[in-house]
Amino acid sequence: MKDLRDFIKVLRDRGELTMIDTPVDPVLEITEIADRVSKAGGPALLFTRPKGHRVPIFINQFGSDARMCLALRTDSYESLASRIEQLASPNLPDTAWQKLKALSKLKDLAALQPRTVKDGACQEVVLTGDQVDLGVLPVLTCWPLDGGPYITLPLVFTKHPLTGRRNMGMYRLQVYDARTTGMHWHLHKDAAEHFRDSRGKLEVAVAIGTDPALTYAATAPVPGVVDEVAFAGFLRGEAIDMVQCRTVDLQVPSHAEFVLEGYVDATERRLEGPFGDHTGYYSLADSYPVLHLTAITHRREPVYSTTIVGQPPMEDTYLGRATERLFLPLLRLTLPELVDMDLPKEGAFHNCALVSVRKRYPMHARKVMHALWGAGQMQFCKCIVVLEEDVDVHDYAQVAWRVFNNVDWRRDVLVADGPLDALDHSSPQPFWGAKIGIDATRKGPAEGHNREWPGDVVMSQEVKDRIDGLWPELGLGSLNAKASPAFTTAPAQED
Questions:
Q1: Residue 421 to residue 439: CA distance in whole angstroms
Q2: Can you give the CATH number for the domain in which 436 is found?
Q3: What is the pLDDT of residues 296-321, one digit of tens each?
Q4: Do 292 and 434 belong to one domain?
């Protein structure tokens, strides 16, 4: 599987794609259809006859765990997370054999670095000058109060004007007219830093419709020193071919369906928004840079790849879940006590984190809160709940039970100011506000709890096993509820 077309074919062969030949309007109608299908856990959709356009529209490609894993070339999130954990392991080899294995791993990684090719399918058609017209793309107007049509699944390429380091991110583009769009990069994003440091014109290239592993990599919170394109090569097990753009000094994936080339000027801003966003609320209109197009290139008979966001669950739920699973091993590099993590879709993934930890000393939960708030994009998390290692953080009923019963609201709650995502509408001012940390772990005298902490009410494993054997004779059939864990005594921390 080398590109988006291969992915579409694989989905069709596996019964994961529905082709819709009925003419449907990209203005609101496709959103309504895709929203219903996404919330029902339905297939990817290929609209072959969008009204007013000749280019098919592909949407909901990531809309299930199965498709997400297929996109990432893995049979499960856990399997890929294990690969990432091995890659990130800081253990140094101490034997000749281990050193040879380490060298082999480095050689394999070097082979996955992006490679430059002379030409690519993304430039089969080249439009420059007066030919440039965004009308060739069937861009969706997603929600009734949106400021206009938006390109929602773009891979935006920039490079730092001083260091030359490449960045690939995903920032929505509001289409203003045939040759200009908004550039919605936030204050905290790498591309915004490139823009600030340019102090003039910054060249930009936008790829649309790429290998799904590359598309995912544009959304992934990889450390700043990691090239997102190289990370995509690691995910798919094969290097990404990059081709030089025609009018800007940037490289783009040679297999992309569309490429937009242009620049943003540090002296120019324009009102962008509103936009129905992944938080489930409209992000409000604000002033953002403007992308001026100098070229559009595309494949012959291209496919336009897009997504919609709004009230969860939607397609981005699965992108968020992949990130939750894949980046847990990286968080454990600095937080080895971290057992598991859940980023609820209802919190738009960056607003809430439920974590379980191996608690070893007083105030350990608060140490974890502060460490997470200092870890990359976790800085935007508005609510962190810390639980014991035996709590299943993916079972929200169990989490609620622990929080509602274990927390003393004066002792166990931390409220602190810090950075917030630019999309946050709740804080009195933009970009920063209050966050809450909730310590739902067991407490002992060392943390000011001098009363005895009770054990959980559960049956002994011996009785459970005996009743399991007896159950078929009781005539109760499927009423056998999920067994609760055997009773274990977990003493309160005293250190």
A1: 23
A2: 3.40.1670.10
A3: 999 999 999 999 999 999 999 999 99
A4: no
Report yes or no on 376 lying in a domain. Answer: yes
Same domain, residue pair 281 and 428: no
Task: Please confirm, yes or no, whether 277 is among the known catalytic residues.
Answer: yes
When divided into structural domains, the chain yields a total of: 2
Best CA proximity match to 408, nearest among 451, 369, 429, 438: 438
The H or E element that residue 307 is part of is: none
- Alpha carbon 173 to its chain's center: 18
**Residue type for 43, please?**
P
The Cα–Cα gap between 364 and 451 comes to 20
Residue 414 has pLDDT above 70, yes or no: yes
CA atoms within 13 A on the CB side of 10: 17
List C-alpha distances in Å: 22 to 9, 192, 447, 484. Answer: 20, 41, 64, 50
* Alpha-carbon span 376 to 399, nearest angstrom: 25
Provide the token pair at 371.
């460490």
Q: Tell me the β-bridge partners of 260.
A: 206, 296
81 belongs to a structural domain: yes
241, 277, 342, 424: which one is catalytic?
277
> Which tokens sit at 431?
């970009």
Rounded CA-CA distance 247/29 in Å is 35
Task: Indicate the helix (H) or strand (E) that contains 175.
Answer: none
Domain of residue 381, residue span: 335-447
String of DSSP letters for 261-305: EEEEEEEEEEEE--EE-TTSSEEPPEEEEEEEEEEEEE-SS--EE
Is residue 182 helix, strand or coil?
strand
pTM, two decimal places:
0.87
Q: Are 180 and 173 in contact (CB under 8 A)?
A: no
Do 64 and 159 fall within a single domain?
A: yes
Residue-wise pLDDT tens digits, 438-460: 999 999 999 989 999 998 888 99
On whether the CB atoms of residues 210 and 3 are closer than 8 A, the answer is: yes
Residue showing tokens 């550039």: 183
Whose CA is closest to 493, among 356, 359, 339?
A: 359
Outline where 440-485 has alpha helix (H): 461-470
Question: Does residue 280 form part of some domain?
Answer: yes
223 in Cβ contact with 375 (< 8 Å):
no
CA distance 88 to 91: 9
My answer on whether 299 and 359 are in the same domain is no
Would you say residue 474 lies in a domain?
Answer: no
Question: How would you classify residue 273: left for phi > 0, otherwise alpha for psi between -120 and 50, otherwise beta?
Answer: left
Output the domain CATH number for residue 99: 2.30.110.10
